[in-house]
Write a structure and sequence with these properties.
single chain, alpha+beta, about 150 residues
């Protein structure tokens, strides 16, 4: 009889990492740059959906909250979810002063996370299979590291 247990790993030592690209690195990915500049709301909806917001709540954040509050909420959640350095005040100021650059940075971050084994290892779930061999004895099998 085999039982599957899902175990969530936590951030090692609480270390936060920097953004994978800088705020002004918009030209590093021209497709993201153009979309962020000319179709800002569509891209913001995409980033909000990527971080786990339902389509309905993502639309509500974008349409019902005054700028920069809705965008700042998305940025704060992304940063907290992925263990990225920074603070709420900095997020609000960044979005208020340069929303297109902030959005492009967030989209590049999501692309970086997808290209590097999905979301970062800070929030990955690790699956451990527990195989019962005899009554009272358990043998643990851990899958290879998440790559």
């Amino acid at each position: 009889m085999a039982t599957t247990v899902v175990q969530t790993t936590s951030r090692v030592g609480g270390a936060l990492r920097p953004w994978s690209s800088g705020l002004c690195d918009c030209c590093d990915d021209m497709s993201i740059c153009c979309c962020g500049l000319f179709c800002h709301m569509c891209m913001l909806h995409g980033v909000a959906s990527d971080i786990g917001e339902s389509p309905c709540s993502a639309t509500c954040i974008i349409c019902c909250m005054p700028h920069p509050c809705g965008h700042a909420l998305v940025r704060v959640k992304l940063r907290a979810q992925e263990g990225i350095q920074g603070g709420i005040c900095g997020d609000v100021c960044t979005v208020a002063c340069c929303s297109p650059c902030a959005l492009c940075q967030e989209a590049r971050e999501m692309k970086y996370l997808r290209m590097n084994a999905g979301f970062s290892g800070y929030n990955q779930q690790q699956q451990v299979t527990v195989v019962t061999t005899q009554p009272g004895q358990q043998q643990y099998q851990q899958p290879p590291p998440y790559k």
